[in-house]
């Protein structure tokens, strides 16, 4: 039996993320300040793939020039909400935003539902099961969330490995949220 190892990496921070806006095809904030630090995290035998958006391609370039674009890793289609600030939607489309947050099948923005994203990512994960070796995939927060949902469904208790000195951050602000801390690239200079 072969082993498939998948490392999902979120793209570097964008201005849209800082401003709490739904993304467009924007670039990352700072191009390549610590590319050698990121590249050193993975050995050369890994297979590097990324989503088609500019921010994921730029982040993947920090890991090497051999990234292959995989359409299954593309960000959610935000429809009419592309580039819109969440605060603006809270004021102007309160019910639509609430429906989207509560119903994974809702598409008030006219784009892709969370359920559709999860199904797309589930199909992609199943396709990787026959891929031996280490795959590093640079993608988006929603795609990583969908992958985690796929892996954690059902009786997942015995499917969680907790390594020594690992840390998982949970925050409660009306509901529990899992937070996977990233690395501050600017702090590594």
Cα Rg: 17 Å
What is the CATH third-level topology name?
Rossmann fold
The proportion of residues forming helix, as a percent range, comes to 25-40%
Count of discrete alpha- or pi-helical segments spanning 4 or more residues: 7
CATH domain class: Alpha Beta
For the report, how would you describe the main beta sheet?
Answer: 4 strands, parallel
CATH homologous superfamily classification: Phosphoglycerate mutase-like
Shape descriptor reads: globular
Strand content: 5-15%
Description:
The chain is 32% helix and 15% strand. The chain is α/β, with parallel strands linked by helices and 189 residues long. The protein has a single domain (4-179), classed as Rossmann fold (3-Layer(aba) Sandwich). Strand 5 and strand 6 form a beta hairpin. The N and C termini lie far apart (41 Å). The model has no long low-confidence stretch (mean pLDDT 85).
Q: Which tags fit this structure?
A:
6 strands; His_PPase_superfam; Rossmann fold; two-stranded antiparallel sheet; 32% helix; four-stranded parallel β-sheet; 189 residues; alpha/beta; single chain; His_Pase_superF_clade-1
Secondary-structure blueprint:
Elements: E1 4-10, H1 15-18, H2 35-39, E2 47-50, H3 54-61, E3 68-69, H4 86-92, H5 94-102, H6 114-128, E4 133-139, H7 141-152, E5 169-172, E6 176-179
Parallel strand pairs: 1-4, 2-3, 2-4
Antiparallel strand pairs: 5-6
Protein name: Phosphoglycerate mutase
Pfam family, one: His_Phos_1
InterPro entries: His_Pase_superF_clade-1, His_PPase_superfam
